[in-house]
Amino acid sequence: MQTRLMELTVGLFVCLGLAALLIMTLQVSTDNGMRGGETYTVIARFENTGSLRSRAPVTLAGVRVGRVGNIRINPQTFDAEVELIISSQYDFMPDDTGASIYTSGLLGEQYIALEPGGSPNNLEDGDRLRFTQSALVLERLIGQFLSSMGQD
Amino acid sequence: MNGLFDTLFGALGRATLFLGQVIGGLPGLLPRPRLVIQQVYAVGVLSMIIVIISGLFVGMVLGLQGYNTLARFGAAESLGVIVALSLIRELGPVLTALLFAGRAGSSIAAEIGLMKTTEQLSAMEMMAVDPIKRVIGPRFIASVIAVPLLTFILTAIGIFGGHLIGVSLLGVDAGAYWGQIQNTVEFREDIFQGLIIKSLVFGVLVGWIAVYQGYTADPTSEGVSRATTHTVVISSLAVLGMDFILTGLLFSGV
After folding, report:
1. Strand A110-115's sheet: what is its strand order?
2. Within 13 A of B223's CA, how many CA atoms are on the CB side?
3. Alpha carbon distance A89, A21 (integer Å)
4. Which of B12, B54, B72, B100 has the most CB atoms at less than 10 Å from its CB?
């Protein structure tokens, strides 16, 4: 009887521990639809990536569809080449899709927003995006504003 | 100087060989799961109360402190992220391991040390029962099982404690609390690497130190008391040091 009670409490303990892990997996964490799934990679060239980091979100119409992979410099053009790793379930993007770097909120992290074009062909793995818009650099913006003020 | 060198590395070497012996003896436990269940009860179930209460209070304190700082920047909605990330990545595994070392590691070391002092271990050897398989193995594997489970419980309760203070008392929006947590915490990065790997490593570490200290205790009452103290001190330091290494390894790569 004593051992049975002990086994019972040990069983309860194990269940409770695993339940806590399950709660955290389901309720607390998110896989952002990116866990282990198939992906394809396209490359976008930006003049300036601002403070974009690897693993930043890639969104389409505000919905997260992928993440930023490697960011490197093209030694010929001195532009930044950003890998966009997009989940294969979104394989219907037109090949004239554009990419822009935006900031979420006023002080939030930077992310890439995709804007689909109208081409009948779809993006494929390894494609390059033709239309990109660089990150907004606040200092440059203020500089332009001041110089245009000066001209008036 | 030479003596210190020898003590340090000699002890590490002996402890590593001992760990190999213990792990080598583990398959022998498969036909006798009851030995392990008994130890999971002793080190796991009986540690649950302290872990639950600590988790609740740590979560509540994080909620209070986080709220005071975040409210100054008008970012009280991010309270959930602060509570959840600090618990999942650092506090949950480390705190559980420290509590476990104090609550269960010390009792393992004392029990084994006393068995050695009263010559129960030699009596077993006399009866051709290997004490490493019969006594040490179950206690070691029970620690490896219990620490991760206790960590999960402490972390979940802690996040709930943060909810209790943040949402119920201070009036953070419940949707914002959980929504922000869900947006930020990622399974592979935070839960798998932070929680599961860290707690497993800490379980092995604390269990190993406790059984080794007990097994090599001087067979006197002083020796047993020293083994108990050493277990708590060494495992606490080892856990904190290992946590730094693991955090560097797991979270530095972008």
Report:
1. A128-129, A39-46, A80-87, A63-73, A57-60, A110-115, A98-103, A131-133
2. 16
3. 28
4. B100
How many angstroms separate the CA of residue A79 from the nearest CA in chain B?
Answer: 21
pLDDT tens-digit series, residues B101-143: 999 999 999 999 999 999 999 999 999 888 888 899 999 999 9
| Residue whose pair of structure tokens reads 């806590």 in the numeric block | A20
* Residue ranges per structural domain of chain A: 1-30, 39-136
CA distance A78 to B250: 32
Residue B1 lies in a domain: no
Chain B residues 192-221 with a CB less than 8 Å from chain A? 195-196
Average pLDDT over chain A, rounded to whole?
83
What is the reported pTM?
0.76
Residues belonging to chain A with any Cβ–Cβ distance to chain B shorter than 8 Å:
3, 6-7, 9-10, 12-14, 16-18, 20-21, 23-25, 27-32, 35, 53-55
Tens digit of pLDDT for each residue in B36-90?
999 999 999 999 999 999 999 999 999 999 999 988 887 888 888 889 999 999 9
Residues spanned by the domain of B85 = 33-251
Structural tokens at position B233: 């001190």
The enclosing H or E element of B65 equals helix B48-72
ipTM score: 0.78
Give the distance from CA B188 to its chain's centroid.
Answer: 21
Name the more confident of A37 and B173.
Answer: B173
Considering only CA atoms, which of B204, B206, B224, B205 is closest in space to residue B214? B224
